[in-house]
Design a protein that fits this description.
Bound molecules: guanosine-5'-diphosphate
Shape: elongated
Largest sheet: 6 strands, mixed
Distance between the termini: 37 Å
Oligomer: single chain
Helix content: 25-40%
Low-confidence stretches: 1-9, 71-91, 123-128, 372-376
Number of helices: 15
Mean pLDDT: 83
Radius of gyration: 31 Å
Number of domains: 5
Strand order of the largest sheet: 7-8-6-9-10-11
Length: about 600
């Protein structure tokens, strides 16, 4: 650790967005220290990156500084000033294409659907029409705006990105095969999309098959609280066939509709920032990264920094292998020119020049080395502190259990827990062992995994270890419920009650040149203890509430004095005793 906060202010006003440097200045810690602390929360940010209020507040709270949110207009202005440019405010942004991820159970047709959508929309004759797999692609449509698809289907990749801090998806399409219906990974996909707070569309696929039963799919979805439009809900469910191409147009239209409601905007007139979608080492061209530009415009020649890696855009290509000179918001591009292979899910951004990029990467590297194993997320035991700091208002849980009956029983019991201000939020529950994707979901959502009579897959255990996710194993339901209850109790403001240990009456006063006035007392009730607190009562009115400065029996210091004995009492910061005062010795006891 480098600079420690010298004497941190007790509260700090934070804007909605603040640069890492700005946050450090407000808290009186160095930028490196700030970066390190952010890393322990899984946020990889460079000195000039902007972080949101919630994240900044977390760091402040850790340092014992109470964060206070600044009023919005100031916040925007502050962010603008600090970033030396404009914030990506709505007024300056222009509409941008939506970014879609396809999720669903294995073999329900995610890949086929992505291929079918891509093929239907390949502009004939363009660059030979051959599309490469670069991790994401964008379709151009005659009748509408472009749509970007993330080409790594499945919720594992989706949540892995999220766990690294990248939220790239605007719309999640959950594919359900019409002949197979809702399966375990369908439920997982739904829960992962929900945990990410991403709106969902259902694609009922394989409707070309004789065994297809779209209505059954709609019914089954209802059981998982996904109520489709036909059943009076709000979720659009579109019957499609990746095999025949039927319904694909409707699906894209549905995506448009859902995206429109979100009013997606971005400002193309600023340095680019985005996320790394995929990366590899090409034997000829060196490190190649597929970057989704989320804001600004990426241009050939731009200096880049992502995680610990810096570089420069030597060349950019689209999914058809065509050279691009620039790429605006929601455009996936393959970038050549990074010095090393970056990590998928990491943020990437254009900076002033290569020197700055290298310096930022170097700073991040040093911070990463310093941060070492100090990564920690929410655990049942640390929850209380997090809550006292105002960071946690709900206990987010994932439940894996041996059989459906236990899932239902535990889910039911958990629903009854929690109360004012603190909620239990079960974001995913299923049967089967704790998997890597459960752990990633937990990491991305600040959740704790409860494992009831199930094992943890070795890969999941490794991931949990690396990301600091807590997995709690139980064999008895009531023990599981009890520990959740205890954690919730920790979430409440503790209430203390005074418990009186003993009472003494002041009978005589002495003066000591060393300690001031000493009260000569007689213990009328209970036991006086040296480590108690003391209320001085005169005619029933409190004169002082202070600590004990000394307790003496004859000439000796005493730890306690019993009822019926005499003793001398010295108090911390109070010596205006009068004969007849009552000294009430007490301690605080937590009652909730
Ligand atoms: P993924 O695991 O979800 O990516 O599923 P795939 O796209 O690999 O598809 C699994 C299988 O279902 C493959 O054999 C596909 O050919 C088949 N399939 C996918 N979509 C359809 C469809 O609409 N109709 C039919 N009949 N088969 C499909």
């Amino acid at each position: 650790m480098t600079a420690r906060p010298t004497s941190p202010p007790r509260t700090v006003a934070l804007p909605d967005a603040v640069t890492v440097k700005g946050l450090g200045e407000r808290l009186g810690i160095s930028p490196i220290e700030t970066i390190k602390r952010l890393m322990t929360h899984g946020v990889m940010a460079a000195m000039n990156d902007t972080i949101d209020y919630e994240t900044a507040a977390l760091v402040a709270a850790e340092l014992g500084v109470a964060p206070a949110r600044m009023a919005a207009p100031d916040a925007v202005a502050a962010a603008v000033r600090e970033s030396g440019g404009d914030a990506d405010a709505d007024e300056t942004g222009v509409p941008r294409p939506p970014v879609v991820t396809i999720l669903g159970h294995v073999d329900h047709g995610k890949t086929s659907l992505l291929d079918a959508i891509r093929e239907t929309n390949v502009v004939a004759g363009e660059a030979g029409g051959i599309t490469q797999h670069i991790g994401a692609y964008q379709i151009e449509r005659a009748g509408g705006g472009p749509v970007t698809f993330i080409d790594t289907p499945g919720h594992a990749a989706f949540t892995a990105m999220r766990a690294r801090g990248a939220q790239v998806t605007d719309v999640a399409v959950v594919v359900v095969a019409a002949d197979d219906g809702v399966m375990p990974q369908t439920v997982e996909a739904i829960d992962h999309a929900r945990a990410a707070d991403v709106p969902m569309i259902v694609a009922i696929n394989k409707t070309d098959l004789p065994a297809a039963d779209p209505d059954r799919v709609r019914r089954q979805l209802t059981e998982h609280s996904v109520v489709v439009e036909e059943y009076g809900g709000e979720v659009l469910a579109v019957p499609v066939s990746a095999a025949t191409g039927a319904g694909l147009g409707d699906l894209v239209e549905a995506i448009d509709l859902v995206a429109e409601l979100q009013e997606l905007r971005a400002n193309p007139d600023r340095p680019a920032s985005g996320a790394v979608i995929e990366a590899e080492l090409d034997p000829r061209r060196g490190p190649l990264a597929t970057v989704l530009v989320q804001s600004g415009t990426l241009r050939q020649g731009d200096a880049l920094v992502t995680g610990l890696v810096s570089g420069k855009v030597k060349a950019m290509f689209d999914e058809r292998g065509a050279r691009l000179r620039e790429a605006g918001p929601a455009r996936p591009v393959r970038v050549m020119g990074l010095e090393d292979v970056p990590v998928a899910g990491d943020a990437i951004r254009a900076v002033a020049d290569e020197r700055t990029a290298r310096r930022l990467a170097e700073e991040a590297r040093r911070a990463a080395e310093g941060a070492g194993a100090s990564r920690g997320r929410v655990t049942l035991d640390t929850l209380f502190n997090e809550v006292s700091a105002g960071n946690v208002k709900e206990l987010v849980l994932i439940l894996k259990a041996d059989v459906r009956g236990s899932v239902e029983a535990i889910r039911g019991a958990l629903q009854g827990l929690g109360g004012e201000g603190v909620k239990v939020k079960l974001i995913h529950s299923a049967t089967g062992p704790v998997s890597e994707s459960d752990v990633m979901l937990a990491g991305a959502s600040g959740a704790i995994v409860l494992a009831f009579n199930v094992k943890t897959e070795p890969s999941a255990a490794r991931e949990a270890e690396a990301s600091g996710v807590e997995i709690r194993a139980y064999e008895v339901i009531y023990q599981l419920i009890e520990s959740v209850e205890q954690a919730l109790e920790g979430l409440y403001e503790p209430v203390y009650e005074r418990v009186v240990d003993g009472v003494a009456e002041v009978r005589q006063l002495f003066r000591s040149s060393r300690v001031g006035r000493i009260a000569g007392c007689y213990v009328t009730e209970g036991t006086l203890r040296r480590n108690s607190r003391i209320r001085v009562l005169r005619n029933g009115e409190e004169q002082a509430d202070v600590g004990c400065g000394g307790l003496r029996r004859f000439r000796d210091d005493a730890r306690e004095v019993q009822q019926g004995f005499e003793c001398g009492v010295v108090l911390d910061g109070f010596d205006a005793f009068a004969e007849g005062d009552l000294l009430e010795f007490y301690h605080q006891q937590r009652v909730n």
